[in-house]
Amino acid sequence: MSTPSRINLSNRIRATLEEEITSGALVAGSRIDEQALMARFEVSRTPAREALLQLLSAGLVTSVPRHGTVVATISVAEYVAMLEVLTELESLAARLAARRMPAAQRSALQEAEAECRSAAAAQDADAYGRANRRFHELIYDGSLNEVLSRQLRSMRLRMRHPQSALFDRPGRIRHSLAEHQALLKAILDGDEEAAARAMSTHISSGGNVYADAIASLPGTSRGFEPAPQPAVAASAAPQRAVRRRATPRS
Fold first, then answer.
1. Of 19-23, 64-68, 181-185, 235-239, minimum mean pLDDT range
2. pTM
3. Per-residue pLDDT band at 211 (split at 50, 70, 90)
């Protein structure tokens, strides 16, 4: 297998597992078996191992003696520390987006906010979670700071929490939508200070909801550390990674 094809396969495996971890399909402590990955995606050992190494580097999995590769846990203390950093980084992204976001991205941000409103009207927590993620990622991109955007995406991945659980909390969608509208207005108006304040309020409010969700989990005093799960290759539904050469970027 050529190097571009192998990299393409490993990226597909990583992206699939990443989505299953962040959505909650793979919970903390779940074992991910390399052999099972090879069978599921019909690949050799190398792309499967490279995908696991990428997840390890991102902090989404860890290597545990006698258990192999498992979905990483995050302690309450780590979560709180990361939330403090996230609040500052998100606020900076909003400030820069208010100053720099191109017109096309501003239109896309309005569309994402409209998707949030539609999901809120339908009381669809899953759809709202997806629209919320798109809304925030457009702000990351609109900051025109690639380093900041990468840092925020990486941190969001490590602070994974099923979006449906977050937005199932009483009143959270309603409050989140109002916060989005204030944030959108500030960015469209080019008001950097208002955008930063609105984002700080938004992240802090969501953080309080996360904290409530954490407090309700059994064994919270041990952090997010459920008993090790049986080894899996990710979701039960088999998927195949299409073997094709990566298309060179122009």
1. 235-239
2. 0.74
3. low
The 10 Å Cβ neighbour count of residue 15 is 13
Q: How far apart are the first and last CA of the chain?
A: 23
* Cα–Cα separations (whole angstroms), residue 183 to 63, 160, 198, 203: 40, 23, 5, 11
d(CA 247, CA 230): 37
Distance from C-alpha of 155 to C-alpha of 150, rounded to nearest angstrom? 9
Pair of tokens at residue 78: 């780590």
pLDDT of 177? 96
> At residue 178, does pLDDT exceed 90?
yes
CB 109 within 8 A of CB 117: no
Phi-psi region of 137 (alpha: psi -120 to 50; beta: other; left: phi over 0): alpha
Amino acid at residue number 1 = M
